[in-house]
Specification:
Elements (H helix, E strand, L loop, with lengths): L35 E8 H17 L3 E8 L1 H14 L5 E5 L3 H6 L17 H4 L3 E2 L2 E2 L2 E7 L1 E5 H6 L9 H14 L13 H10 L17 H15 L13 H8 L4 E4 L2 H10 L7 E4 L11 E10 L6 H11 L2 H11 L2 E2 L8 H4 L2 H9 L3 E2 L7 H16 L5 H15 L4
Parallel strand pairs: 1-2, 1-3, 10-12
Antiparallel strand pairs: 3-10, 4-5, 6-10, 6-11, 7-8, 7-9
Length: about 425
């Protein structure tokens, strides 16, 4: 799923209650090959490419028959919802991280076996599988966002390296506007609260309490981040009303009219198409700047693999999940689909390691977060986005916006 336009994951609860989805004990994946028929539902490009990847799984497990069903992303949520209600789920499914909280709370998933090796994944990606004190499924692939910037225009503006903190980010945006002919120094979404969240997290803000029972959106850290974000718009460094046409942002970046933005790995391929192979020499990627120094915290999304409680062949399903999490398989999957590996070891593959633009994403994945896996987050996010728009357009100040977001979130609740 595309980053900064999609929500993501969760906070780990400290304990369990009678209603927690994590009360069931986790099984252990048995030794030996997978056997029997195992059904998997996958989405979009993943569903198209998966049968080819699974030839190796079949070679290793000759007595297994994997049945892949393609499910369109737009109807995926409703299809899973209906299957859970009717008791007709597949054994294993590709689950968008934004859906994990809802379906885990509905007790649709089997707990992750303790011997599946959660420690082999990026911690931020594992967080997406943790709901209400339990762990469900394993990460399959991840999305995150990093800073893209035009190195040629940055050099023209007097900068020869990526911004390392918030002050430098703002200074670079201003310099490229003043000295390198950019219309705006940076592209920032004016009315998308989730796109703003890397700034909040990098400032140390938390969205909810550790037990997930209360929203904590009104904090000094959140106010600092919103004030910093707002200033890009009020000072004319970011467009208050950017074009919503598909590809407009990419075209602005290639033309140099807006030479900096935060985006996902798929943009690398887009820029090769738009700017040609030589354009790669005109831009670079960098980790999201921290407030003071170091690597800031970006957003993480992607897809998980879950085994359903109603699975007919859970042992084979977990063995399939374990196979898809192998570093060499994750690296091969990236080459087939462009999906970023959730396993750090996979980033040792030369295709990822030796590409400086892509390697940055592996570095960023060491510092990522996501919203809590709450069934109410979508409502909170919608209200917060409306308030963010009033902030960036100057209709409201930071204090009014933060109080409005917290008040609305408290009324909506966390669903726990």
């Amino acid at each position: 799923m595309a980053l900064l336009a999609a929500a993501a994951l969760l906070l780990t609860a400290c304990g369990r209650t009678a209603d927690d989805p994590g009360t069931a004990s986790a099984a252990v994946v048995s030794d030996g090959p997978a056997t029997g028929t195992v059904s998997i539902w996958a989405m979009g490009a993943e569903a198209e490419k998966l049968p080819e990847l699974l030839r190796a799984f079949k070679d290793q497990n000759p007595e297994v028959d994997v049945q892949v069903t393609a499910v369109p992303w737009p109807s995926g949520h409703d299809k899973f919802q209906a299957a859970i209600a009717a008791g007709t789920t597949p054994d294993i499914g590709q689950m968008g991280t934004t859906w994990m909280g809802e379906f885990a709370e509905a007790k649709a998933f089997a707990p992750t076996p303790g011997n599946l090796g959660a420690g082999s994944f990026y911690p931020g990606s594992v967080d997406s599988t943790k709901v209400g004190g339990g762990t469900f499924g394993v990460p399959w692939y991840v999305d995150t966002a990093v800073l893209y910037y035009r190195t040629d225009l940055a050099h023209q503006a007097g900068f020869d390296s990526a911004p390392a903190n918030w002050d430098q980010l703002r200074a670079l945006a201003a310099a490229m506007q003043q000295k390198a002919g950019a219309r705006y120094g940076i592209s920032l979404p004016p009315k998308d609260f989730q796109a703003f969240l890397p700034f909040a997290w990098s400032a140390g803000a938390k969205l909810a309490t550790d037990d997930g029972t209360k929203w904590t959106l009104d904090s000094p850290q959140m106010r600092d981040a919103l004030a910093y974000y707002q200033k890009f718009f009020t000072d004319g460094l970011a467009d208050k009303h950017p074009s919503t046409e598909t590809g407009a942002g990419e075209n602005d970046f290639v033309k140099g009219t807006v030479p900096m933005f935060i985006g996902g790995a798929y943009e690398v391929g887009e820029f090769t198409k738009l700017g040609g192979p030589d354009f790669a020499n005109k831009y670079a990627t960098a980790t999201v700047p921290a407030k003071e120094s170091g690597t800031g915290t970006s957003f993480v999304g992607g897809s998980d693999l879950v085994v359903f409680k109603q699975a007919k062949n859970p042992d084979a399903a977990w063995k399939l999940a374990k196979f898809l999490a192998k570093p060499e398989i994750q690296a091969q999957w990236y080459k087939m689909t462009g999906d970023l590996p959730a396993v750090p070891q996979a980033w040792d593959d030369p295709t990822l390691r030796d590409d400086p633009k892509l390697a940055v994403f592996g570095q960023q994945l060491k510092s990522v977060q996501s919203p809590p896996a709450s069934t109410r987050w979508a409502q909170v996010q919608e209200t917060a986005s409306q308030q963010t728009e009033q902030l960036t357009t100057g209709t409201k100040d930071v204090d009014a916006v933060v109080r409005a977001i917290q008040s609305a979130a408290t009324s909506i609740g966390t669903g726990r």
